[in-house]
Design brief:
This protein is of the alpha/beta class. The chain has one domain: D-tyrosyl-tRNA(Tyr) deacylase (D-tyrosyl-trna(Tyr) Deacylase, Chain: A, 3-Layer(bba) Sandwich). Helix 1 runs parallel beside helix 2. It is globular.
């Protein structure tokens, strides 16, 4: 499981064709992708890591607080393109990304795990939809995690 985590002042996702919108104030925008080999362990490790990651400033201006510590929100969006392979040619290959029958249940478990770790509801996108994501990156702070590499 791979994520891109962005500390944000605000973020939103819209699916105009479906009249759907979700937004958050300060917190984290999390883009998440899955591969066929991902398990519940990957999902839970990643959710726990994100909720506890100390990337918010304390009173001394040092990144020493987590999204949980600051009462922040999370917006989690599925994004299979995080597993794009750009090794050959100029057209990325997405062959490594999990197909919906594997990815959707993992995404749903990830959302539930984030809500458990955060202690409140998490904003979300619609899996597979043509989503329009907006954010105001705070810092900027952008971090990548990969559950297979544990970074």
């Amino acid at each position: 499981m791979r994520t891109v985590i962005q500390r944000v002042t605000n973020a939103s996702v819209a699916v105009p064709d479906e009249g759907y919108e979700s937004s958050i104030g300060g917190g984290l925008l999390v883009l998440a992708a899955f591969i066929d080999e991902d398990t519940d362990e990957d999902v839970f490790w990643t959710a726990k890591k994100i909720a506890a990651m100390r990337i918010f400033d304390d009173e001394s201006g040092v990144m020493n607080l987590s999204v949980r510590d600051v009462g922040g929100e999370i917006l989690a969006i599925s994004q299979f393109t995080l597993y794009a392979s750009t090794v050959k040619g100029n057209r990325p290959s997405y062959i490594k990304a999990a197909k919906p029958d594997v990815a959707v249940p993992l995404y749903e478990k990830f959302l539930a795990a984030l809500e458990t770790e955060l202690g409140k509801p998490v904003g979300r996108g619609i899996f597979g939809a043509d989503m329009k994501v907006s954010l105001l990156n705070d810092g900027p702070v952008t971090i990548i995690t990969d559950s297979k590499l544990k970074f």
